[in-house]
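Everyone, describe these structure tokens:
***
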Amino acid sequence: MPATITTLAPAIADGSVSATSLVEQCLARIAADDRQGAALHAIIRLNPGAMAEAAALDAERDVSGVRGPLHGIPLVIKDNIDLLGLPTTSGCLGLADAMPLADAAQVRRLRAAGAIIIAKANMAELSFEIRSRSSVAGDVRNPFDGNVTSGGSSGGTAAAIAAGFALAGLGTDTGGSIRIPAAFCGLVGFRPSWGVADMAGIAPLAPSADTVGPLARSVADAALLFAVMTDPGAAPDATGTRRRIGVLRQFFGADPQIIAAGESVLQRLTAAGFDIIDPVPLPEEFLPNSTVDVVDHEFAEAFDAYLAGNFGSGAPASVAALHASGRFLEDYDATLRRRATLPTDRQPHRLLLERRAALRQAVEALLADHRLDALCYPTSAVVPTTLVNPTSGLAPELSAWTGLPALTLPVGVAASGLPIGFELLGGADWPLLATAAAVEGSLNRAAPQPH
């Protein structure tokens, strides 16, 4: 389904396209390609009420007009986001019967704007990796190459959108989990500023870095979803033809295809009138690398509280109980055992948070000193070639460590046919979205389509 929300919404509003027909098309694609055909394993569970919701929205439009900007739009959500009436599995068999007490706050916002949640998407189990393998539904396969990962941990959402199972969707991002799968699947993926989007009813991983955000086919669609997800405040400023973008060469990696795609982007932006400041060095001592895993220090307390307060039935009492059940990916045994309790030494966590604060100051200084609208770099240092966990590099951690917003958009295609994504990071959400829209328009590149 190559259409975008912004191009399709007028047809829904005037009645020339129905929500019912859109949902039927999406369900047909899922039936053909998710467990059969391409066997993408992107979907964990369909919403059994989707067709009824679509019919009700069509009737509502005929009587009183559209409910909001997402009226009749089929979306998918990652299965760590609560949808009342369906379990929230986080990709884990131990949560296969965990029934939430209510819709997540973001689901309520989407539905109030007229969206239809058509399905819950597969993911990396408990959001632990940047591939999407779960004990519930196996590996999410890339729509561009079924032998390759879709990325993670929001890989099911990304694969579903790329394959036409929905027009857009929501994922979560703690260290790249929206942006990496968006890049691998040829989509726009937006990680908002930390703390700006309500996380109620969403399974935590590391609360000091967790975010929820949109994956979509265009920057305009991502911005529309973000506006629904938050209180938008000032509209994005899209005026002016010249913008200043700084290049973080330290994150380009060594893959010649990715480097070539980056050089092509910079050349086209220069020709389009952008001011490209190349390079803008980030001092080595601030780079987002550490032997301390923030998840080890935050997961147990946060997930235990989530289990205790979020479900009416079917959930284990704690991470320790989940581990004792044995109902998870076998290769997570040691990781889950370690993450079932908080480390006794809290000093490494405090030092890590201090390093992150120092990095944010350094990045904000780069933006201010060079008068930049954004920093840019490849989203991933590699193009995936297998279903194993990719080594994507430090770039996705820059936004996660600083809490600043970042967006990936498709800029090229590797020799294998897989998309290549480029990331923009800025100081605030709406100005960054405006810069990304200008970049997208200058590149004049539509989201690639799987064969």
Q: What stands out?
A: The chain has one domain: 5-443. DSSP finds 14 helices and 17 strands in the chain. The chain has a mean pLDDT of 95.
